[in-house]
Amino acid sequence: MKNKIGLIQMKCSTNADENTRRAAEFVVEAGARGAEIVCLPEMYRTPYFCQNEDAATFDLAEPVPGPSTQALGEAARKAGVSVIIPIFERRAAGLYHNSAVLMDPKGEVQGLYRKMHIPDDPNFYEKYYFTPGDLGFKAFDTHAGRIGILICWDQWYPEAARLTAMRGAMSIFYPTAIGWHPSEKEEFGAAQRDAWRTVQRGHAIANGCYVAAVNRVGLEKPDPNQAGLEFWGTSFVCDPFGVVLAEASTDKEEILVVETDTRRVEDVRRNWPFWRDRRVDVFGELIRRFAD
Known about the structure:
The protein has 292 residues and is α+β, with helices and mostly antiparallel strands. It has one domain (2-287): Nitrilase/N-carbamoyl-D-aminoacid amidohydrolase (4-Layer Sandwich). Helix content is 27%, strand content 29%. A six-stranded mixed β-sheet has the order 5-4-3-2-1-17. It is globular and about 55 Å long.
């Protein structure tokens, strides 16, 4: 079965309503270009605020349902598409998640994923804001096939991709906010971006599925005295053989619409039978922190 997926690579301003309005327009445009499921970048509605720790920032969080599901639900209905909406979720007072809501073509909430792996690095202070996800790894049936959703830092963990694929996902979406520290870009930038692409292509190969990574673009400086982060775009889709089918630029807003085919999943898995040869009887140590 052939389907088309859409990736929205966009800039994110300090105006949440404007970001939401533009995202809805992008979704409708992607639908007009044939996309059946459309994915936005991680926390599309705001700048990447995790560069600082500020309690007032929790005011940016929203519930489910909330402003994003309302606006993007309307866009989903208008375009007749499913939409993956990554949000800063307010679950309860003092309890927040980095989440992604799946809307169906009727504009109704079909599913929710909460980011499992939470980083804490310079300018990526996510542990201050987000509670680790507690819904596990999931797959959802859409009219564009069975898909899985993981978020940004999850993309570095083969276990996350494996468990999502084990639930039947033929395509795994990774809404993302990743970029360069400007001071490191010249020396390490090319290698960092290549590692990011390579690990996700590896997940596609190891699991025999499509992978779609959706990043934002632009230099974001929450404080004028900070260097900020330069988000490197490069949203892409690769097939189960790791072949990159389409890739966006490092610095421009773009919509990618890419065809996937479940027959390709079947063909690759038959010829590279990693699923058949997995030694599930000896993987018990994976649930330990370290095999010491």
